[in-house]
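Async update (no meeting this week)

Hi team, since we skipped the sync, here's where things stand on the single-chain job. The sequence we agreed to prioritize is pasted below, unchanged from the tracker. I ran it this morning and attached the output directly underneath so nobody has to dig for it. Comments welcome in thread, and please keep replies under the output.
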Amino acid sequence: MSDTQRRFRGRPLSADPLTGHESTEALLHRAFLAYGGREVRQAYDLLKRAIEEDFTIVLTVSGAMTPADLARSSINPLIERGIVDVLCTTGANLYHDAHRSLGFQLEEGTPFVDDRELRQERIIRIYDIFFEENVLLETDQFFARVIQAPEFQRGLTTPEFHHLLGKYLVELENQKGLQANRSLLSTCHLHGVPIFCGAPQDGSIFLNVVRLRKALGDAFRFRLDLEQDVYEYAAYQYWAQHHASRKMAVVILGGGVPKNYSLQAEPLLSQIFFIDAGGFDIDVQISDANVHTGGLSGCPASEGHTWGKTSAECIQRSVFCHGDVTQVFPLLAHGLLQQGLRKEGRRLLGKRAEALAFLDRAAEAAREDAHAPGE
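Output:
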């Protein structure tokens, strides 16, 4: 066999018959051998490695995942075990996830229906999910009431904002006896996980902010500090690259704004602040987006490396699973939980001041270097 031939040899594709008694991990390694199945297996192996090697893990979630209750089934259990350190998602996911904490039900429906009839009956449809329009109205009232509280009447970053919202949902869930089945906002609140939203104005929580501003005028002083929001996210990433294991992984469910927001810290640090910073070391993506359209949602880790968003090593430690998140991620989460995997969560909200000060010092040093004589 020539050296060139050896370069193109891999593991034998040979499977033993399934027995029905395999663990999820054994199933993935025994039967998910090629094509999309291999992508799923590689995603599991990379996630397991990131947990066992104590990576700081960023999870991004886009698309209507919480209406399908993906948070309670698959994401919250990972947060509770310290596996998710930062969350980037949409306002819509946080909003719709709160419905159940407020006592409302979302129900299995069908896409094969006359939507005109649904509108007449004031029934909302998200593909094959149905719920009554009143669910939205009652949820709006909850958030509008909460956001008027005194602690919201200042400039906040999205993690600060969501942390406060989570406090109120914790109280509500305690009253309703929902401690064993909490919302995403309250779970992140309890475990110190910052929740970033790159487009907060694109969602119903912020629509209530618009109404309050018009109704209350200057008496309503709530504001989102978007410049500080971007800086805070970069501060957590920079802090993580210099503390604990110094390694970072990103797990991208879907694409869109949450994906881009999670990846833009490195360009901010290196391109704008001229701070030596690295990208992610492991990249796991699950999406139905295609790469050939040029959109970010379908962009693989190797393309991200040309921007500095992922490390050179990440190209060999990445996978893009082509599929529906709801088809793939619960299986991966089940396998990780079945193996008893957990890690020490970073609880980054409690390190906010430390992370910001750490980045402040690096930014000041970079400015001094830029203005040093002879430069």
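Quick observations from my side:
The mean pLDDT is 94.
The CA atoms of residues 154 and 222 lie 5 Å apart.
Reply here if anything looks off.
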